[in-house]
């Protein structure tokens, strides 16, 4: 799979091999089941037309450029992870368009001329609510009107789960309350977080439950505080585990708000500091809570571990 980074006006696509493309277009944060339907339709059209299939996405999030967000934006799937998922979906190319102030000012026609026609796109597939051009004025109907015979257009209807639209906004809302089982259904796969194992306070070993303290890759969304059944990949091997996201109130000053992600890896006893790991999140077991002492904490972690083992035995 080829990855092309495009920006306006200086770094536009030069199609050295003169490939024609069936294009799926959208921001695609999460690459959830609704997004996957758009990409699937683009792949089908590519096969029908005997051309390659590409996905066009944008970076960074438009709200960072347009001033709508004064806080750091956290992604369900940061760009690197998004590209990995698109590779698994077997698209031929990814166009990453740099979202800048100049890009945001393009009229719908300028966008189509520069980023659709210039990239030799012969078919465009997008969701029913995709918009483009300055102030999002370009609709999919306008995408079709601007084609002038150079490409055709498909629009994918709203995709729903349990009667509600599948969307990145909905997934973020579920992550915010820790409903990882619902997130898994919406994504079509477990929520994924990557990071590096760093040194913590090593208190877990003193209570017989050593943990891997995971520092997440910057910009990733972290689920709500609580205790979760997870799987963690260490050196290409997957292990079951129990993860605590929170502020360790049993030991820490409640005013010292430093969030930690600690995974107790079941049946594992190796030093893995510095290792890059992947955590897949499956089920929230309970809320984070403060205990009256170490013995009470140890007893509860033991129960959490049994819940996680039982959960994974059943799926």
From TrEMBL:
Would the keyword Lyase be found if you checked this record's keyword annotation? no
Can you cite a GO biological process for this protein? FAD biosynthetic process
| Catalyzed reactions | FMN + ATP + H(+) = FAD + diphosphate; riboflavin + ATP = FMN + ADP + H(+)
Q: Which UniProt keywords apply?
A: ATP-binding, FAD, Flavoprotein, FMN, Kinase, Multifunctional enzyme, Nucleotide-binding, Nucleotidyltransferase, Transferase
Residue ranges occupied by any Riboflavin kinase domain in the UniProt entry: 186-313
What's one Pfam family here? FAD_syn
| EC code(s) of this entry | 2.7.1.26, 2.7.7.2
Instruction: Specify the pathway.
Output: Cofactor biosynthesis; FMN biosynthesis; FMN from riboflavin (ATP route): step 1/1; Cofactor biosynthesis; FAD biosynthesis; FAD from FMN: step 1/1
Single GO MF annotation: riboflavin kinase activity
What family is reported?
A: Belongs to the ribF family.
Return the protein name. Riboflavin biosynthesis protein
> Species lineage, top-down?
Bacteria, Bacillati, Bacillota, Bacilli, Bacillales
């Amino acid at each position: 799979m080829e990855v092309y980074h495009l920006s306006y006006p200086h770094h536009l696509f030069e199609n050295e091999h003169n490939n024609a493309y069936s294009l799926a277009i959208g921001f695609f944060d999460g690459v959830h089941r609704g997004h996957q339907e758009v990409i699937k339709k683009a792949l089908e059209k590519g096969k029908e037309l005997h051309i390659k299939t590409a996905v066009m996405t944008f970076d960074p999030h438009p709200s960072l450029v347009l001033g709508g967000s004064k806080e750091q934006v956290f992604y369900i799937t940061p760009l690197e992870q998004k590209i990995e998922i698109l590779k698994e979906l077997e698209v031929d190319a990814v166009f990453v368009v740099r979202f800048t102030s100049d890009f945001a000012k393009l009229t719908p026609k300028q966008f189509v001329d520069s980023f659709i026609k210039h990239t030799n796109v012969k078919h465009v597939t997008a969701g029913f609510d995709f918009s483009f051009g300055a102030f999002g004025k370009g609709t999919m109907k306008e995408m079709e009107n601007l084609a002038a015979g150079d490409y055709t257009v498909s629009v994918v209807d709203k995709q729903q789960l349990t009667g509600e639209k599948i969307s990145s906004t909905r997934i973020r809302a579920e992550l915010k309350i820790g409903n990882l089982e619902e997130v898994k259904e919406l994504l079509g796969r477990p929520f994924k977080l990557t990071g590096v194992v760093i040194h913590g306070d090593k208190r877990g070993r003193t209570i017989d439950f050593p943990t891997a303290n995971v520092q997440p890759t910057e910009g990733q969304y972290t689920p709500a505080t609580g205790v979760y059944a997870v799987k963690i990949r260490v050196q290409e091997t997957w292990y079951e585990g129990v993860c605590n996201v929170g502020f360790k109130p049993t030991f820490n000053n409640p005013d010292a708000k430093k969030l930690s992600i600690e995974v107790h890896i079941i049946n594992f006893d190796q030093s893995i500091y510095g290792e890059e790991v992947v955590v897949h999140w499956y089920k929230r077991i309970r809320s984070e809570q403060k205990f009256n002492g170490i013995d009470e904490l140890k007893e509860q972690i033991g129960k959490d571990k049994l819940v996680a083992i039982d959960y994974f035995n059943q799926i």
